[in-house]
């Protein structure tokens, strides 16, 4: 996998200082959301460990976010539905490459396009099967995948059947 290509704004020193003007800060936070999501999606990283994330500093311009600023950026990231705190101390954040609602839509569109409506497949096939190569839900966190399937079930777009193991759980698409 090639190295991650940082966007041009990552080399702009004020990017690493939370901006005091609300309109400017909102644009800055949107750029941080974009950067965090793109970095973790491209590298297929599902969990952000706050103290171990390379995004918080740019050695080329000798700038870094301070701990309180990192917290502000990640709280905004989670508030916008792109992440979920995994612990009360906010040291790890689950990255939602796609929101459960987006994944639900992606899964159902895939099922329609590939002729799965009216037939059954397993959760494992949705997660790791050959038919899902390149799809947004391929390799997704299993809990997130199940939340997306629950959304589809609530909408009447699928029925979930419990197997003997979680890998054997089936989904019938409607």
UniProtKB/TrEMBL annotation:
Pfam annotation, one family: ESCRT-II
Gene Ontology CC annotations of this record: ESCRT II complex
InterPro entries reported for this sequence: ESCRT-II_cplx_Vps25-sub (IPR008570), ESCRT-II_cplx_Vps25-sub_N (IPR014041), WH-like_DNA-bd_sf (IPR036388), WH_DNA-bd_sf (IPR036390)
Keyword Protein transport among record annotations: yes
Keyword tags: Protein transport, Transport
GO BP, sorted A to Z: macroautophagy; protein transport to vacuole involved in ubiquitin-dependent protein catabolic process via the multivesicular body sorting pathway
Family: Belongs to the VPS25 family.
Record protein name field: ESCRT-II complex subunit VPS25
Naturally occurring in which organism (per UniProt): Phaeodactylum tricornutum (strain CCAP 1055/1)
Lineage: Eukaryota, Sar, Stramenopiles, Ochrophyta, Bacillariophyta
